[in-house]
Amino acid sequence: MMTSTQPATPTLHILNKPPGHPRFESCLQAIQDGDQLVLTENAVLALADRSVTLPAACKAMKADVDARALNEQTRTGTIDYAELVRLTAKHSRTISW
To answer: Is the pTM of this model over 0.85?
Structure first.
Protein backbone atom coordinates (compact mmCIF):
# COMPACT_ATOMS: atom_id res chain seq x y z
CA MET A 1 0.00 0.00 0.00
CA MET A 2 1.43 3.34 -1.02
CA THR A 3 0.90 6.41 1.02
CA SER A 4 1.52 9.89 -0.15
CA THR A 5 2.35 12.70 2.13
CA GLN A 6 0.71 15.93 1.29
CA PRO A 7 2.15 19.17 2.55
CA ALA A 8 0.32 20.50 5.56
CA THR A 9 -2.20 23.22 4.88
CA PRO A 10 -0.93 26.49 6.33
CA THR A 11 -2.98 27.59 9.30
CA LEU A 12 -3.80 31.07 10.58
CA HIS A 13 -3.47 31.10 14.38
CA ILE A 14 -5.25 34.00 16.12
CA LEU A 15 -4.06 34.26 19.70
CA ASN A 16 -5.66 36.49 22.35
CA LYS A 17 -4.25 35.00 25.57
CA PRO A 18 -1.30 36.67 27.38
CA PRO A 19 2.10 35.05 27.85
CA GLY A 20 1.97 32.57 30.72
CA HIS A 21 -1.55 31.40 29.87
CA PRO A 22 -1.65 27.68 28.96
CA ARG A 23 -3.28 28.39 25.58
CA PHE A 24 -0.52 30.88 24.72
CA GLU A 25 2.07 28.13 25.15
CA SER A 26 -0.09 25.54 23.35
CA CYS A 27 -0.50 27.86 20.39
CA LEU A 28 3.23 28.50 20.04
CA GLN A 29 3.90 24.75 20.18
CA ALA A 30 1.28 24.03 17.49
CA ILE A 31 2.71 26.42 14.90
CA GLN A 32 4.20 24.67 11.88
CA ASP A 33 6.30 25.95 8.98
CA GLY A 34 4.10 28.05 6.72
CA ASP A 35 1.63 28.98 9.46
CA GLN A 36 0.85 32.60 10.36
CA LEU A 37 0.36 33.90 13.91
CA VAL A 38 -1.66 37.02 14.70
CA LEU A 39 -1.50 38.43 18.23
CA THR A 40 -4.70 40.13 19.41
CA GLU A 41 -6.01 41.56 22.69
CA ASN A 42 -3.72 40.61 25.63
CA ALA A 43 -1.49 38.39 23.48
CA VAL A 44 0.23 41.57 22.25
CA LEU A 45 1.79 41.80 25.72
CA ALA A 46 4.25 39.21 24.41
CA LEU A 47 5.87 42.03 22.42
CA ALA A 48 7.17 43.54 25.67
CA ASP A 49 8.31 40.17 27.07
CA ARG A 50 11.78 39.42 25.69
CA SER A 51 11.67 35.90 27.17
CA VAL A 52 8.96 34.96 24.65
CA THR A 53 10.22 33.69 21.31
CA LEU A 54 7.75 34.56 18.57
CA PRO A 55 7.75 32.87 15.17
CA ALA A 56 9.00 34.78 12.14
CA ALA A 57 5.50 34.73 10.62
CA CYS A 58 3.98 36.80 13.42
CA LYS A 59 1.92 39.98 13.22
CA ALA A 60 0.14 41.97 15.92
CA MET A 61 -3.10 43.90 15.70
CA LYS A 62 -2.21 47.58 15.62
CA ALA A 63 -5.34 48.60 17.56
CA ASP A 64 -4.38 46.27 20.43
CA VAL A 65 -0.73 47.38 20.39
CA ASP A 66 -1.85 51.02 20.52
CA ALA A 67 -4.43 50.36 23.26
CA ARG A 68 -1.70 48.91 25.48
CA ALA A 69 0.84 51.64 24.64
CA LEU A 70 3.27 49.09 23.24
CA ASN A 71 4.22 51.11 20.16
CA GLU A 72 7.90 51.22 21.18
CA GLN A 73 7.93 47.49 22.01
CA THR A 74 6.96 46.25 18.58
CA ARG A 75 9.18 43.31 17.63
CA THR A 76 6.95 42.33 14.76
CA GLY A 77 4.84 44.02 12.13
CA THR A 78 1.39 45.31 12.92
CA ILE A 79 -1.75 44.86 10.87
CA ASP A 80 -5.18 46.43 10.77
CA TYR A 81 -8.58 44.72 10.61
CA ALA A 82 -8.64 44.77 6.80
CA GLU A 83 -5.35 42.85 6.71
CA LEU A 84 -6.72 40.35 9.26
CA VAL A 85 -9.66 39.72 6.93
CA ARG A 86 -7.23 39.19 4.01
CA LEU A 87 -5.20 36.70 6.07
CA THR A 88 -8.38 34.87 7.05
CA ALA A 89 -9.42 34.60 3.39
CA LYS A 90 -5.92 33.44 2.38
CA HIS A 91 -5.77 30.56 4.88
CA SER A 92 -8.14 27.64 4.55
CA ARG A 93 -7.69 26.80 8.25
CA THR A 94 -8.02 29.23 11.16
CA ILE A 95 -7.60 28.42 14.85
CA SER A 96 -8.54 30.95 17.53
CA TRP A 97 -6.73 30.45 20.81
So the answer is: yes
